[in-house]
Write a structure and sequence with these properties.
homodimer, 8-stranded mixed sheet, 11% strand, globular
């Protein structure tokens, strides 16, 4: 009964698996942390839709971060959308943060181009292309994790619910590499920012990199930091550290994202961190992605974790660029799913997915369409 | 009566001037923000006690920041104390933060050596020596202030009381320069980290720099940003921006420090920022400094602002290095006064200055004396 009431109240949030009901996410002082990073793996052709072309990929995470603050990009004089108008998911996140007044910070865990915003710096280098080099030195992995622990601890003192999102182009490939190294059968289960999910390409890159590094499936299951160092990216240890820092201090964490956040969950498990206060928050478009297998991937890592899924009704949008999210493009990122869930909960059910869609469309008109038309 | 009760409860906090009683500082979610920065002005001989010698000065702010997290310095293999054992005021701040569990962040607004901690970066260059160059470009002043506003706004969403401290060697000289440019008669009123307050040297430097920049007393009273650019340092616009960001969003601010914080107050006034939620928090050793004139300096800037003064009974310490604070050395810094006030209030009066002294002495034994003995 209790649960039915909640379902009615939050009709655009679905809980999948797990023992938790939606009200476990209620908080008087949530905070959103967006970790931006870079891996040169993203420069391999065909791997990401983020960034209109190869030269622009390096601006993507910083442009996303600037968009959250300003509704526009400053590091690059361009609209944060594909040439045919599919926007960055930061558009959704920004809209939600404006409505909910949830505070947020951006953590730089190794971007190539610094955004024009104040940010929490982990003083890390961008990750290398895992086909050519090891992803990052083990000292850098250790530092990212250690800084994450420190930040997570501080954050959790006045914020009892920390929502963690990311922006790292090419990140699903490195995430796949780490999971396979840890013995999690994630192959062909990872989502992509494109509807034609380039599984073959991703598998090929990861297999080649594993071979180069003498890794076989599960051979690093007790050495998650080695896996990150050889085949991961700087976002992974940073988010892991922040999450653990919060949990160790008694707080709750939402891993807001798609299959990349599965990697974080799998490392937390390997580190024996208690995950009863860890939740996954994502969009319907990841959850329903037939080219991937999100739910089973999560459950194969932790069959007790609750997945919260947000429905923003983008399929009903009059904006083709937004409707595209429901048709397999972009789908998620920059914590869009998790932050929209927190926004509905923050509004105590007074804002549902349909109402939020109107706000998102307004933001799209103001900050994408107008500039897009201006440019063309 | 009410007020007498408070005075009894918080017997080691004194309110000077202003209409506020101590309970205005009560908060369920305070946060401490330590802004570290650098000015090459500190390299002029005789200007600061911070750093055992000239080559070490550049490590001071970062060593302070590391001390807050680790109880030791990492960027430099040395004890954060003068050769005869006078510790950094960060020792007091760290002790208080540990006891109170008040969260804190460090903002890098332009240090020369990066500390080994995660920090909020404003991506600024260290300030120049005001005898030789302008202190910082006007774009940098604008950026520091703008980033401060952004950070202050975000902080104030979940923290209704923001305590602002600083660590910038040589900062009282640049602070003096800015105040004179704004028409505030601060000459011979600024505190120093040394008992033989080098007023003559500071005045000489500032006068020379003013002449070089064609500034006369008060000639920049309507151009505070020009004053900072010509004769200030990067800490000043950063702290000003954070303070204003908090206030604009309805929060309360404590400027925790000595005469440098007067400069912040004077700029806030020049920017027409309402200061009824701005408080000064400092130590008894600044307040009683006969070589300076703290109270009158504050009142000449804003005669309504309340000054809260913390008594940590350092005069009674068995540790000569700590006792020295009461005899004119160091006196304050890294927000020590303000954070100790917040700690007493957080403990609802259950911790007074004498109790806190015991904790400070323990910290001194553990992190200064032991290492100091080890080294010698």
């Amino acid at each position: 009964m209790e649960n039915n009431k909640l379902i009615e109240k939050y009709k655009d949030i679905t809980v999948v698996n797990g023992k938790d009901s939606i009200n476990i996410l209620e908080s008087n002082n949530p905070i959103f942390v967006c970790v931006i990073a870079y891996t040169e793996t993203s420069e391999i052709s065909g791997i990401t839709v983020a960034g209109a072309n190869k030269d622009l990929i390096k601006y993507t995470p910083s442009a996303d971060a600037e968009f959250l603050y300003y509704g526009r990009c400053k590091c690059i004089d361009d609209v944060p959308a594909t040439p045919d108008g599919k926007p960055t998911p930061a558009l959704i996140t920004k809209t939600m943060l404006d409505i909910s007044n949830i505070p947020f910070i951006v953590v730089d865990s190794g971007v190539k181009v610094k955004p024009d915003i104040p940010l929490f710096s982990f003083n890390l280098r961008p990750g290398k292309n895992i086909l050519k080099d090891i992803a990052m030195k083990s000292e850098e992995v250790e530092k990212a994790y250690r800084y994450g622990l420190i930040l997570g601890k501080q954050l959790s003192k006045n914020n009892d619910f920390v929502i963690l999102g990311e922006s790292i182009p090419g990140g699903t490939t490195t995430a796949l590499g780490v999971m396979l190294s840890l013995g999690i059968d994630a192959e062909n289960k990872m989502s992509s920012s494109m509807p034609q999910n380039p599984h073959t390409l991703k598998n090929m890159i990861v297999r080649k990199s594993m071979k180069k590094n003498n890794i076989t499936f599960g051979s690093l299951k007790d050495k998650p930091f080695d896996a990150i160092s050889l085949i991961g990216d700087p976002m992974i240890p940073s988010v892991t550290g922040i999450a653990q820092g919060v949990i160790d201090n008694g707080g709750r964490v939402m891993l807001a994202g798609g299959t990349q956040m599965c990697t974080i969950l799998s490392i937390l498990k390997r580190l024996n961190v208690k995950t009863d206060k860890v939740f996954i928050g994502t969009t319907k478009y990841i959850f329903n992605d037939h080219s991937a297998d999100f739910t089973n991937l999560v459950l194969s890592i932790d069959n007790n974790v609750s997945i919260f899924v947000s429905d923003l009704h983008l399929i009903e949008s009059t904006k083709l660029g937004l409707k595209a999210f429901a048709n397999g493009f972009v789908k998620e990122g920059v914590g869009a799913g998790g932050v929209s869930i927190a926004t509905m909960i923050n509004a105590n059910g007074k804002l549902n997915g349909k109402t939020l869609l109107k706000y998102i469309e307004n933001e799209y008109e103001k900050n994408i369409e107008k500039n897009y038309v201006k440019r063309n």
